Amino acid sequence: MHNKFCIIDDQLVVTCSFNPTGRGAARNDNVLLQVRSRLLAAAYNAEFEELWEGVFSAGDPTVDPVMELGGTPFHVAFCPDDGCRELIVDVIDGAERDVRFLAFSFTDGAVADALIRAVHRGVSVSGVCERVQARRWERCTAVQSAGGDVRADGNKGMMHHKTFIVDDETVMTGSANPTKGGLMGNDENILVIRDGRLGASFKKEFRRVWTESTPWGTKKEKGRLGT
Asked: I want to staple 116 with a disulfide (CB 3.0 to 4.6 A). Which of 101, 146, 151, 219 is the partner?
């Protein structure tokens, strides 16, 4: 159960990658979103009730996953109930100009293939991967080899983000890492939000992480990994 969300007074949802730990607050790179909406809170409440009743890694699909909040389109998905892998792939496949991503753990082949398809159709793909996750099944190298610009994070703690920014205005973020376990097995939540102002905020964070990063696969990175 890898969710990180709170529902307050049936109207405020607090969610994303942040674990309520000292390290999560003080050292790791994280996202925390607050959204005030009874519609969104109802969707999260339904998921909470399933978990409360002991229904894990399963459950009913979200009844109304697509909504408009204050003129902003939202799509909420709970994994594995709502086809999270397919949602991420569909959003990436719809990219026209650029995809930026920040990934703590990235091992899912379908998501990697979507990024590679984006590169092949001329979309600019750039991303930062958490360097200590550079293990046997990582997909960062495959995206880099296809022509994506991939770097390793420079945070002395953890780069714990799970975020995609598409065409500057569509943000996908939440608790789910792009891994088979995260998308197909764990209880997780993902938000897809189309909003230029939010996209600008996430691009600012992307640039900050990017500035601290180093090229993926360099000796500096391998030395830190002890390989």
From this structure: 146
The contacts of residue 218 (CB under 8 Å, 6+ apart) are 152
Phi and psi for 118 in degrees, rounded to 5?
-60, -45
Query: What is the per-residue pLDDT across 150-167, written as a single tens digit (0 to 9) for each?
Result: 999 999 899 999 999 999
Q: Is 76 part of any domain?
A: yes
Kindly report, residue by residue over 174-201, the tens digit of the pLDDT: 999 999 999 999 999 999 999 999 999 9
Residues of the chain with pLDDT under 50: 219-227
* Residue 19 included in any domain: yes
Q: How far is CA 139 from CA 82, 100, 155, 195, in A?
A: 23, 15, 20, 28
CB atoms within 10 A of CB 115: 28
CATH number for 112: 3.30.870.10
Cα→Cα distances 38→8, 13, 42, Å: 10, 9, 6
| Helix orientation angle between 109-120 and 84-93, rounded to the nearest 10 degrees | 10
Consecutive H or E run containing 93: helix 84-93
Residue 108 belongs to some domain of the structure: yes
Tell me the three state secondary structure of residue 139. coil
